[in-house]
Amino acid sequence: MQNAEAVAVGNGGDDEVDRWQPVVLGIERPDWRYLRDQLVERVVEAPVLGTRITPFGVLYEVVVLVDGLNGATAPVAAIWIIEGDLPPRLVSTWVDIP
After folding, report:
1. Residues 76/64, Cβ–Cβ less than 8 Å
2. E strand or H helix at 24, and its extent?
3. How far apart are CA 40 and CA 33, in angstroms?
4. Helix (H) / strand (E) containing 29
5. Run of H or E residues at 43
6. Which residues pair with 62 in a beta bridge?
7. Strand order in the sheet with 48-54
8. What is the pLDDT of residue 7?
9. Among 61, 70, 78, 82, whose CB has the most other CB atoms within 10 angstroms?
10. Over the range 69-95, which residues count as b (16 or more CB within 10 Å of their CB) and which as e?
């Protein structure tokens, strides 16, 4: 995905995500900037796994490896949306554990 700009990882409220990221990567809500920086840096080279056209824009799913604060590395899935000519915006993330 080209031209990903710095975006805020939302404090969205998906409780399942909030449970997995701290356990697997040691990344909690106050660490959102740490997660954001890795996602923004690595999304540029990430292959797009899926797309979906919505009334709000086009959703793109990518998976990038994220280095956790606890020393672990894990794949993190991220959904980005592009609305018209606006820069990509992060919609959701989760640790992509099978």
Report:
1. yes
2. helix 15-25
3. 10
4. none
5. helix 32-43
6. 48, 78
7. 48-54, 57-67, 73-82, 89-95
8. 39
9. 78
10. eeeeebebbbbbbbeeeeebbbbbbbb
Separation of alpha carbons 64 and 21, rounded Å: 14
Which residue, chain included where needed, has tokens 């990509």? 88
Tell me the two tokens of residue 96: 């992509």
Q: Give the whole-angstrom CA distance, residue 54 versus residue 83.
A: 10
Question: Which residue carries 């992509």 as its tokens?
Answer: 96
Q: What is the pTM of this model?
A: 0.75
pLDDT in tens, 20-71: 566 788 888 888 899 989 999 999 999 999 999 999 999 999 999 999 999 9
Residues 61 and 93: their CA atoms lie apart, in Å, by 10
Query: Cα 47 vs. chain centroid, distance in angstroms?
Result: 13
